[in-house]
Amino acid sequence: MADDTLTIVFNLGAAWLAGSLIGLERSYHGRPAGFRTHALVCVASAMLMLISTHQGQWLGDSLSQSTIRTDPTRMAQGIMTGIGFLGAGVIFKEGLTVHGLTTAASIWITSALGILFGIGFLYPAVLVTIGTLVTLSTFRWVENHLPSEFFADNMLCYPIESVDSESEVRAMIARHRCAIKSMSYSLDERGTVYRYHMVLQTHDKQNLVQLAAHLRDSDTIQEYRLAPATT
User: What CATH architecture is 150-228?
Assistant: First the structure.
């Protein structure tokens, strides 16, 4: 019993440490689910797996040992299904921008780590913890240096008496080395405001900065919104 107690304490402690390290990385970057959330998720998953793998201890003598059937995989399935609700809670969309996907993935893998620690698979659990920390920290730098396309949600508002034509708008966007992937039109404010709503694509984020400066200094544009897409 003493050996089992030490093993349980060690596995829970290792799960708490792994979840805390992943949570610290998330907290450092200002994500909604951080240090405390990840630590609790990992410990909870480990604890539930320990309950499943140590049924004989908490059932005691009330049942014959021959009647006890342990199936930890069913507990693991329940944990991974339930954690999806928590992960979904940190994902939200605003325009073209989707926030929280990486944090949701980190919660999901933290729960899986808790399962590994709970059943005592320490070697793969430690490797995955290190791999997760490397992915969250180092891969951020790699992503920032990879060539990629950038998208932005762009809305231009004109007073109805001085609306630039679509060809003029397209030419202005093209001068700033941006491509229009889609365009829609609307008439608002009881017919006093005309809006172009576009999705822009460019290969250099600086082009969006220069476009924003041009829109800010325009004499004809009444209002604009330029929101680069992020994840």
Answer: 2-Layer Sandwich (3.30)
